[in-house]
C-alpha cells in the first residue's frame, strides 16, 4: 500500500513539474522576424577598451551598420528616465571626468576608479557628467537609442528589475509602443515577464535564466533561485522564449522547453566562433560579444 501511494505521489509531482515549466505554446508572427536575424550583438557591437564600449550609442551604431540584431538593457534613473545600462551599480562601467574624482569613488578589480552608487541614485542629467569606460560616450536614453536604430535591425530588450519595482515595465512600453521596428522583451525577474503577459500579451516575452547555484554568492543558492534556474515560474509567465546561459545548455527544464514544447531558445553570451558552432543545434538565437560571427 505504501509503495502504491509513493508511486502516485511521484507521478503527480512529475505531472506538476511538466505543467509548471510549460512555456507559452502559441507562436506569434513576430517571432519569425526575430529569427530571420538570429545573431544579436550583446550590448551593441562593443569593445570596452575602445571608443565603443558596451551599451553605448557608438556600439549600437556599429551593430546596425554590421546588420546585426541588438541586445540591450533598460532601467530607470532617479527621475524616471529609461536609460540603457546593464549593471544596477555604476562602478564597473561609469567613470568620472578627469580631475573630478571624489573620495567615495569605487576602485574596481582592474584598478580603475568607478562611479559610486546605482543608476537609480542619479537623475538623467546627473548621469551625463560621467562617461563610459575610457571613451567619450555617455549613458544613453532608451528613447535616443530607439531613434538611432529606427527599425533597421531587430531588438532584444532586457528590463532590469530589482526586487519588486516594476516601474520600468510601463516606461519602456510607452516608448516601444511608438517604435516602428521588430523587438521582443525579456527579463530575469519573472514578475516583469508576468507583467507583460498580464498587460501586453501581444508582445513577444522571454524569461532569462541560468543555473544560479554555480555562483559564489550564497544568495543564489536559495530555493527561489533554484526555482528560477529550473523555470518553475513558467506556469505564471508562459514565456514565448527562454534565454539561457549557454554554459548550462543541458539544464533539464531548458532542454524540455526547447525539445518537448518547441519553445524558442536564445543563448547568452556566446564569446567565440567555437562556442557558436557548438551551440547551433541547442539554440535558435545567439547573443554574442567579443568576436564577429562567421
Overall description:
The protein is α/β, with parallel strands linked by helices. It has a domain at 27-87 and 145-288: Alpha-Beta Barrel (TIM Barrel). It has eleven helices and 13 strands. It has helices at 2-20, 30-36, 57-66, 124-127, 142-149, 167-176, 190-199, 223-229, 234-237, 252-259, 273-278, and strands at 39-42, 69-76, 82-84, 94-95, 106-107, 113-114, 131-132, 155-159, 183-187, 205-209, 241-245, 264-270, 285-288. It has an eight-stranded parallel barrel, surrounded by five helices. Helix 6 (167-176) links the parallel strand 8 and strand 9. The longest helix has 19 residues, at 2-20.
**What's the story with the biggest beta sheet?**
8 strands, parallel, barrel
Enumerate how many helices there are, as a single number: 11
CATH superfamily of the domain at 27-87 and 145-288, by name, is Phosphatidylinositol (PI) phosphodiesterase
What is the end-to-end distance? 61 Å
Report the portion of residues in β strands. Answer: 15-25%
Output mean pLDDT.
Answer: 94
Assembly type: single chain
Fold-level CATH name of the domain at 27-87 and 145-288: TIM Barrel
CATH class of the domain at 27-87 and 145-288: Alpha Beta
Kindly state the percentage of residues in helix.
25-40%
Radius of gyration: 20 Å
Strand order of the largest sheet: 1-2-8-9-10-11-12-13
What overall geometry do the principal axes of the alpha carbons give?
A: globular
Structural class: alpha/beta
Poorly predicted runs of 5 or more residues: none
List the secondary-structure elements in sequence, H or E.
Answer: HHEHEEEEEHEHEHEHEHHEHEHE
CATH architecture of the domain at 27-87 and 145-288: Alpha-Beta Barrel
Total strand count, please? 13
Amino acid at each position: 500500500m505504501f509503495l502504491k501511494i509513493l508511486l502516485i505521489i511521484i507521478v503527480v509531482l512529475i505531472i506538476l513539474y511538466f505543467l509548471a515549466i510549460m512555456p507559452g505554446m502559441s507562436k506569434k508572427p513576430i517571432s519569425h522576424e526575430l529569427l530571420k536575424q538570429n545573431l544579436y550583438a550583446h550590448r551593441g557591437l562593443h569593445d570596452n577598451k575602445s571608443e565603443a564600449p558596451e551599451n553605448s550609442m557608438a556600439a549600437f551604431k556599429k551593430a546596425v551598420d554590421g546588420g546585426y540584431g541588438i541586445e540591450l538593457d533598460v532601467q530607470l534613473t532617479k527621475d524616471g528616465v529609461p536609460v540603457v545600462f546593464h549593471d544596477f551599480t555604476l562602478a564597473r562601467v561609469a567613470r568620472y571626468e578627469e580631475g573630478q574624482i571624489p573620495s567615495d569613488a569605487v576602485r574596481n578589480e582592474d584598478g580603475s576608479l568607478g562611479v559610486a552608487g546605482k543608476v537609480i541614485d542619479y537623475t538623467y542629467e546627473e548621469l551625463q557628467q560621467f562617461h563610459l569606460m575610457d571613451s567619450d560616450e555617455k549613458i544613453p536614453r532608451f528613447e535616443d537609442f530607439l531613434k538611432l536604430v529606427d527599425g533597421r535591425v531587430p531588438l532584444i530588450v532586457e528590463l532590469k528589475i530589482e526586487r519588486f519595482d516594476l516601474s520600468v515595465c510601463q516606461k519602456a512600453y510607452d516608448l516601444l509602443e511608438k517604435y516602428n521596428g521588430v523587438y521582443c522583451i525579456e527579463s530575469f525577474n519573472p514578475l516583469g515577464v508576468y507583467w507583460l503577459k498580464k498587460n501586453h500579451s501581444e508582445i513577444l516575452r522571454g524569461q532569462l535564466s541560468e543555473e544560479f547555484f554555480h555562483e559564489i554568492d550564497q544568495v543564489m543558492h536559495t530555493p527561489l533561485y533554484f526555482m528560477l534556474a529550473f523555470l518553475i515560474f513558467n506556469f505564471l509567465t508562459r514565456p514565448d522564449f527562454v534565454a539561457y546561459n549557454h554554459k548550462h545548455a543541458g539544464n533539464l527544464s531548458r532542454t524540455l522547453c526547447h525539445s518537448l514544447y518547441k519553445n524558442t531558445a536564445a543563448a547568452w553570451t556566446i564569446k567565440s566562433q567555437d562556442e557558436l558552432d557548438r551551440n547551433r543545434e541547442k539554440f535558435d538565437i545567439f547573443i554574442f560579444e567579443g568576436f564577429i560571427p562567421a
